[in-house]
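In response to reviewer comment 3 from the previous cycle, which asked for concrete evidence that the modeling workflow produces usable outputs, we include below a single protein chain processed end to end. The sequence was submitted unchanged, and the resulting structure tokens are shown without manual editing.
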Amino acid sequence: MASDEEFVLTRMSMEEHLKELRYRVKISLISVAAITLALMVVPADPNFLSNPFIFYKPLVSVILDYIRVYTLPEEVELVGIRFLAPIELYLFSSLILGVILSMPIIAYEAYKFIDPALYSHEKKLIYPFTLAFTTLFTVGALFGLFLVIPFLLKASLLFYGIVGAAPLVYVTDFYSLVLYTTLLSGLAFTFPAVFILLVRLGFIDTSIIEGKRLPFYFAIFVLTAIITPDGGPIADFILFLPIIILMEIAVKIAKKYEKERQIPKRSIFTKVVEPIKCPYCGQTIPGNTTFCPKCGKSIR
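The workflow returned the following structure tokens.
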């Protein structure tokens, strides 16, 4: 295998960069659209196929039922208010769930976006990264759904008693809170995987956190406050603590890679041109060379 020194680093043009970005975004959007459509139309009960004339529940309906049963407090009643609210919820929830279920594909495409800037041996990291990203996203989403959301709802109910209001909650508001918090919690948990990958590939270094922990922690706390807008500082801290712990572990792991490889920083706008072998003498030749430096013959 060729060493890093034998590769040629060239600057990608803005047109090349945008073309690659457009392609990766296109694949991600197609995956989101396909999964969203499946959630909207695929029947949850396979018995529907034997009797297609009965009304069926799509997959999204079953997921919403599950969310309501496991997160909605007993004293809260969901109301529609507007006649088209259920239709809006049907479309909106299908889209958000489509994004959530597409996260492994989106992570894969994000990695492939920086693929031109990677050496051949670095490209093998795509599957460990996708697995780590998917695992952390799943853990974060479940953390948000089963721990953060119940606390948010309980904390909000306290204020209904204070102001003497009945806990009648707009159905779209409830599911929006649950789905957005689940999605953002999952994404927040993936920061360590992304951080380690970027350090390992030489795009950033651990100094962006080391020695600057106070502003970094503050930024993370602001992020958790955005994710948990209705739960107060305690809810923020519930999400803030595991993210900080994961990031500190990520810094230690990334520091190890940083010391082992001593990778110089590079940009995602670079393009790695792999060396080739001269078909006449077998000499390793940089990818942007026309004539073999050993035998002088043209390889183009």
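The longest strand covers residues 8-11. We consider this sufficient to address the reviewer's concern, and the full set will be provided in the supplementary archive.
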